[in-house]
Amino acid sequence: MFRGFTVIVGDPGTGKTTLSMRMAHERLTSGERVLWVSLYEGRDLFLEEASKLGYRLERVDFWEAVLVEPETFWGRLIDTVAETKPGLVVIDSVTPLVERAEGRSLLLNALYRTLRPAGIDVVMTLERDGPSFVEYIADNVIRLFLERTEEGVPERRMCVDKARTLPGGYCRQFDIIPGAGLLFFDELKPTPRPPVEVNTGTPLDELVGGAFLGTTLIYGPAGVGKTRLAVKIASFASRKYKVIYRTFAEEAWQIKERAKAYGADFDVMPVRIKPPTYGTHIYEFYRLLEEERPDLIISDGFDVEFKVYGEKAFEMNLRLFSALKEAGVALIGTMAKTHTLSNYVDNVLRIRKVNGQRRIEVVKSFRRPIRLSCALTEDLDCS
């Protein structure tokens, strides 16, 4: 938690207002009063936008200062502070108030004669090309950045250039998630539990040392039977374990229809992704781990992530693999090719056709396999 005078600097759309909303939400939750001063929007729009992000800010003292002249602003602010007695004041945005020397002088006067002596924390948002004077006098300087990859995936960073009571000189990745607000990726941590060994009761268990444990990739060309095999594994495993089947290409009803052949019924989640939903995709996966507490997740055809997210998919999957291990959840993922993920998973199985016959073989296993390969029958049993 930043104390004193904090300035949040960034271009439009980088998340300055959203980060300020998060700070206000945290203070309200802890029982403090918050005065929000807006120079560009009214209370109704402010509350509507906050609600979309999952922030309940109805209890803020809101001052709509859209038409207030810069010369009279600071005097009225001091009067409002004296009336509301907040623990935090947010000014969004301070840029038009400090463009002239007179405004900067009035800011100094309000800050050092009223706000600091009263122990009131202040957060101000500032456009990136705003006066550097504000950054110079601030206790904490936060910069927000928004860039996009070639695929259009947003990359948001918060960099703390200066912090008086906390270490500075670091950056954190974040995204803005509808319903969850501004979320730092390093805050996403599943509840730890011992790893689950998933014994499906099929001969495929022998290829991974007796049971599926940790992360397993099954890869092979299109049409070789990866989805059919994944459905069979999920069907047999669901008799003893909680299984979540994530399908990236087919519809849920198609997977469930195939599962009927085995008399199985498990949860199927269609996953449809677009470049702007990168952060939401990560967040939803962590929420799945926490809310559903599965023993086994099947991610069928998840190489779609690499087509949509490009190189960011590799970074994302390493993060998700780590979360799975911490949560003790087994993963079986199917792909056309491994995208170098084989170096970071526990088991790798390859399906291919040899002389017209399907074979599945062990490429990598962290436990000694009972058998190294087998021919697959039409029913996808090992022969």
Explain what you see:
The chain has a nine-stranded mixed β-sheet, with helices on both faces. It has an eight-stranded mixed β-sheet with strand order 12-11-13-14-10-15-16-17. It has helices spanning 16-29, 43-52, 70-84, 101-115, 132-137, 226-237, 252-259, 278-292, 304-309, 312-327; strands at residues 5-10, 34-38, 61-64, 88-92, 121-127, 140-148, 154-162, 170-177, 181-184, 215-219, 243-247, 267-270, 296-300, 330-335, 347-354, 357-365, 373-375. Helix 3 runs parallel beside helix 4 and helix 8 packs parallel to helix 10. The longest helix has 16 residues, at 312-327. By secondary structure, the protein is α/β, with parallel strands linked by helices. It folds into two domains: 5-184, P-loop containing nucleotide triphosphate hydrolases (Rossmann fold, 3-Layer(aba) Sandwich), CATH 3.40.50.300; 197-376, P-loop containing nucleotide triphosphate hydrolases (Rossmann fold). A hairpin with a 2-residue loop joins strand 15 (347-354) and strand 16. Residues 2-155, 212-355 form the AAA+ ATPase domain.
Element-by-element helix/strand order: EHEHEHEHEHEEEEEHEHEHEHHEEEE
> Could you say what the CATH architecture of the largest domain is?
3-Layer(aba) Sandwich
CATH homologous superfamily identity of the largest domain: P-loop containing nucleotide triphosphate hydrolases
**What is the count of DSSP helices, taking H or I runs of 4+ residues?**
10
Shape: elongated
Top CATH class of the largest domain: Alpha Beta
The unreliable regions are: none
User: How many domain modules?
Assistant: 2
Largest sheet: 9 strands, mixed
Distance N terminus to C terminus? 61 Å
* Structural class by secondary-structure content: alpha/beta
Number of beta strands:
17
Percentage of residues assigned to helices: 25-40%
> What percentage of amino acids are in beta strands?
25-35%
Strand order of the largest sheet: 3-2-4-5-1-6-7-8-9
Mean pLDDT: 93
- The whole-angstrom Rg is 27 Å
**CATH fold call of the largest domain:** Rossmann fold
Pfam families: ATPase
Organism: Thermoproteus tenax (strain ATCC 35583 / DSM 2078 / JCM 9277 / NBRC 100435 / Kra 1)
InterPro entries: AAA+_ATPase, KaiC-like_dom, P-loop_NTPase
GO molecular function, one term: ATP binding
